[in-house]
Design brief:
By secondary structure, this protein is an alpha+beta fold. The protein has nine helices and eight strands.
């Protein structure tokens, strides 16, 4: 989850726990964002891996230490109960852990006692739906409404936001539970990739053997089930010799795959897929795109064009809108 959403959800949970008490709302919201302060440890994280991003600050021990320190310091800044300060900051920190574990970015909640990770794959790590809602919410709460509207209007805004996030997380969780029967070891799919659409997921599996990588995919929509797939595409890791333009989509994909992997680490490091099609001039174009680095219907990828005259392929990293509408 993005930082704004972490802070806003912690604010809303604190409101539900203690009501509209500004000092506690501020403490809970702050605690909701603090685990991501581990980005400041980047210079020393290589020497002390426990300080890496999604490391000790994203554990129950880490958020409890922060909550304990906050319960001692916060009353010196804004009067309040140390016990309540501890509880709301603990609530904000735990909410942060659960939100990250809800996505496709795992966290180790039991560190340093266990490296076991929490990863539900029910949402994207950065989802622009929640990011935009959170940004607008802060603009309303801290800008438009603060000291300018009746208290009842503020309460109405808060309850609308609570209802939105409750519904959003419920839809995502319902979808993730529903697709569980399609994802299992040894089956057609063994991995789930959430899309920006809260009602849709990409199901896939990836196999690497004999110098080739093969990806099998399907698209699942909540309420409709598996609406596409399973379909497969693959190619060799190392470049293959070829002459002239490709004669089919299969050849375009076969020849372009190693070129795409060489042009962009994203293709090699993330789950990906490929499409090929002829254009009006008779040239073949193949596009390989990441299923994980996506935004606004477009995906980070590599486009490979094969000129009609057999000249060398033209390779370009690009953001691409897949024709098969996977994301």
């Amino acid at each position: 989850m993005d930082l704004l959403t972490h802070v806003l959800v912690a604010y809303l949970l604190t409101f539900l726990a203690v009501g509209p008490q500004p000092q506690y709302l501020a403490a809970g919201a702050l605690a909701g964002g603090l685990p991501d302060a581990d980005a400041l440890f980047f210079p020393i994280a290589r020497r002390f891996p426990i300080l890496r991003h999604h490391g000790i600050t994203h554990s129950l021990l880490g958020v409890s230490v922060v909550a304990g320190a906050g319960s001692l310091l916060a009353p010196m800044i804004l009067p309040g109960s140390p016990v309540v300060y501890f509880l709301v900051m603990e609530l904000g920190g735990v909410a942060h852990i659960l939100q990250d574990g809800f996505t496709n970015f795992s966290v180790p909640p039991l560190l340093p006692f266990s490296e076991r990770r929490l990863e539900l794959d029910a949402d994207r790590a950065i989802n622009f739906v929640t990011l935009v809602v959170s940004a607008v919410a802060f603009y309303l709460l801290l800008g438009v409404e603060r000291n300018h509207v009746a208290f009842a209007v503020y309460l109405g805004t808060v309850y609308v936001l609570i209802a939105f996030f409750a519904a959003y997380f419920a839809v995502r969780l319902a979808g993730r539970l529903a697709i569980g029967r399609h994802v299992r070891p040894g089956g057609a799919f063994d991995r789930v990739v959430p899309t920006g659409n809260p009602f849709a997921w990409v199901l896939l599996s990836e196999r690497a053997e004999g110098g080739r990588v093969t990806t099998t995919w399907g698209r699942y929509v909540l309420g409709r089930g598996l609406v596409a797939g399973p379909l497969s595409v693959g190619g060799p890791v190392e470049p293959v010799p070829y002459t002239g333009p490709p004669a089919s989509a299969a050849e375009a994909l076969e020849w372009s795959y190693p070129l795409a992997r060489k042009a962009s680490r994203v293709i090699g490091d993330t789950y990906h897929f490929g499409e090929a099609y002829p254009d009006a001039g008779g040239e073949w174009t193949a596009v390989w795109y990441s299923l994980e680095f996506t935004a606004f219907g477009r995906s980070s990828g590599v486009r490979v064009r094969f000129p009609k005259d057999g000249a060398p392929a033209q390779v370009k990293s690009t953001f691409y809108r897949p024709r098969q509408h996977l994301i």
